[in-house]
Amino acid sequence: MKTVIIFDHPYTATASHNVPHQRAFLAALCQQVQQQLKAQNDQVTLIDLHAEQFDPVMSAAELARWRRGLPVNAQVARYQQALLAAERIIFMFPIWWEVMPAMTKGFLDKVYAKNILYRGDNMRTKLERQPRIDVITTMSTPKLLYRWLFGAPLLKMLQRGTFLKTRLWHFKWHPVVQVDQLTLAQRQQVLAKFKI
Q1: Model confidence over 132-165: pLDDT tens digits?
Q2: SS3 for 91?
Q3: Could you give the CA distance from residue 25 to residue 190 in angstroms, rounded to a whole number?
Q4: Which terminal CB of the chain, N or C, has fewer other CB atoms within 10 Å?
Q5: What is the dihedral of CA 172, 47, 176, 160, to 10 degrees?
Q6: Which residues of 75-111 are buried (b: 16+ CB within 10 A; e: fewer)?
Q7: How many C-beta atoms lie closer than 10 Å to residue 40's C-beta?
Q8: How many CB atoms lie within 10 A of CB 56?
Q9: Order of strands, edge to edge, in the sheet holding 132-139?
Q10: Are strands 43-48 and 88-94 parallel, antiparallel or unpaired?
Q11: Phi then psi dihedrals of residue 103, to 5 deg
């Protein structure tokens, strides 16, 4: 299976070591997920947005290209080709202020583009392989509070507002919650049990 991982954390996917202020539990999860997928003989492509210096801001010139159904730049064109070939797409990011960071939002704005990855006239996806979409997040908010108090805005935005709208039906959210309150031993336990 061809799997594309879109990883968004300022410390990058290399920050899996336990070094204070240079570590991200999300990076350790990314390492774990890649090991699982490679053990299943998946072909894995990692897009590490911060490491690749992806610019999430849409300029006026880029928007003009986007509106004409053209990739906004060579980096985005490369990402679009990877997604067109994917059988599984995994987004990995922390939840900040109840939604994704700007880098992931900018990735969706620029890369998941009209007339390239979905049709402009009817919103139907052009991802013919109907890839499974997995979203792996870390957050400090408890899951029940996130769903019932805040209304799960991430699910509304991604599952309903992006992927179901463009007829990508296979979506699963994998939240890892209250990571900041876990001990090192508890984090290692979460990693050992985590399955995608």
Answers
A1: 999 999 998 878 788 888 888 899 999 999 999 9
A2: strand
A3: 10
A4: N
A5: -30
A6: bbeebbebbeebebbbbbbbbeeebbbebbbbbbbbb
A7: 11
A8: 16
A9: 43-48, 2-7, 88-94, 132-139, 171-177
A10: unpaired
A11: -60, -45
pTM of structure = 0.94
For the chain, which residues make up each domain, given as ranges?
A: 2-193
Inter-helix orientation angle 74-85/102-111, to 10°: 80
| Neighbour-count burial of 119, counting CB atoms closer than 10 A to its CB (0-12 exposed, 13-18 middle, 19+ buried) | middle
Instruction: Read off the pLDDT of residues 32-80 as tens digits, 9 standing for 90 and up.
Output: 999 999 999 999 999 999 999 999 999 999 999 999 999 999 999 999 9
Distance between CA atoms of 107 and 105, rounded to whole angstroms? Answer: 5
CATH H superfamily, domain 2-193:
Flavodoxin domain (3.40.50.360)
Structure tokens that stand for 182 in this block: 């876990």
Tokens standing for residue 104: 């992931």
Q: Which residues pair with 89 in a beta bridge?
A: 4, 133
- What is the CB neighbour count within 10 angstroms for residue 183? 8
In angstroms, the CA 173 to CA 118 distance is 22
Q: Please answer whether residues 134 and 91 qualify as being in contact, where contact means their C-beta atoms are separated by less than 8 angstroms.
A: yes
